[in-house]
Write a structure and sequence with these properties.
By secondary structure, this protein is mainly α. It has one domain (3-95). It has helices spanning 3-30, 35-60, 79-88; strands spanning 62-66, 90-95. It has a two-stranded antiparallel sheet. The protein is elongated. The model has no long low-confidence stretch (mean pLDDT 80).
Length: 98
């Protein structure tokens, strides 16, 4: 696959994880979910995210790296949700040689 396609796939996965995280954050807030439950769910999603990115890396031969150029607005979320969004804020790294 081309680098452009790889990048599009990584963006799709990241956007999906961000949407899920923001959706859950809203549900947690609306339903006053217990602190421990929020952290457990956020940690589980983080594990799934890394597992998914690892599979993409195995498939495409390229990895992920923090997107330090991202200038997103600060939003005030639960620390677990905010941390998860920071984790998901990655971009594709350059392709590895096979």
């Amino acid at each position: 696959m081309s680098k452009v396609k790889d990048h599009q796939i990584y963006e799709l996965v990241n956007d999906t994880f961000k949407d899920i995280t923001l959706c859950l954050g809203g549900i947690f807030l609306t339903h006053k979910v217990r602190e421990k439950v929020i952290w457990e769910i956020a940690n589980s999603i983080e594990d799934i995210y890394y597992k998914t990115m690892g599979r993409l890396e195995d498939t495409f031969g390229s990895g992920i790296m923090p997107d330090l150029e991202s200038n997103k607005k600060e939003i005030h979320l639960h620390p677990a949700i905010e941390g998860l969004l920071k984790i998901i804020n990655f971009k594709p790294a350059s392709r590895k040689c096979r």
